[in-house]
Amino acid sequence: MWTQGQRQRLATEHQILQNEGFTQFSVWHHSASDTYTASGFATSSAGKNYHLWMPIPSGFPTQRPPLYVINPHPLRKANGTSISTLGVSHAMHTLQPHDNGYVQICHWRDARWHSGIVLQKVFLKGHLWIEAYEQHLATGRDLADFVRTMAENA
Fold first, then answer.
1. What DSSP letter does each residue of 22-46 carry, written as one string?
2. Which of 26, 29, 1 is closest to 13 using CA atoms?
3. What's the CA angle centered on 109, arms 99 and 29, to 5 degrees?
4. Residue 149: what are its φ and ψ, rounded to 5°?
5. CATH topology of domain 4-153
6. Taking the model in full, what pTM does it have?
7. Per-residue pLDDT reduced to its tens digit, 74-84
8. CA separation (Å) from 141 to 22, 103, 118?
9. Contact status, residue 17 vs residue 27, Cβ threshold 8 Å
10. Which of 68, 112, 130, 133 could form a disulfide with 102, with the two C-beta atoms 3.0–4.6 Å apart?
C-alpha cells in the first residue's frame, strides 16, 4: 500500500517534528494494519492539554491529512453544546467530525494543500486553533474572530 518514498517521507516528518521542537508529537507506524498516524499533546498558554490525532491518508503527501482533537471529548462550545454537532463550520474553523465525534480542525483547504507542507506546520495550526478555542471559551465569540481562515495563512 505505501511506497518506499512515502515511508521515507513519514520517517522524515517524524525527524522534522523532533528537530523543530515539536517533540511532544510523533509519527507512528502501526505494523499490524500497515497504517500511519501522527499524534501528541498540545498545551495551551493557559496550561490545558489537548490530544491531537492525525490519521495519515494513503495519498499522503499529496493528500491533506485530517487533524482531530480527541481529548477532551466531547469538545464543547462556550454555551456547553458539542462542537462536533456543527459539522463544517466557518465560525469555529471545523470540518466534518470523525465517526467517533472527534472535532476535525480546519487547517488547510484541500485545494491549497500540496506535498511541500510538512506535518509540523499542521500541528502548529492545531496550536493556533487551540489558543483561539480557549479565547472562544472565555468570551463566547467565534474562533473566526480570533484567527483568519487557516488556508489564507498558508
1. -TTEEEEEETTTTEEEEEEEEE-TT
2. 26
3. 55
4. -50, 125
5. Ubiquitin Conjugating Enzyme (3.10.110)
6. 0.94
7. 999 999 999 99
8. 29, 18, 30
9. yes
10. 68
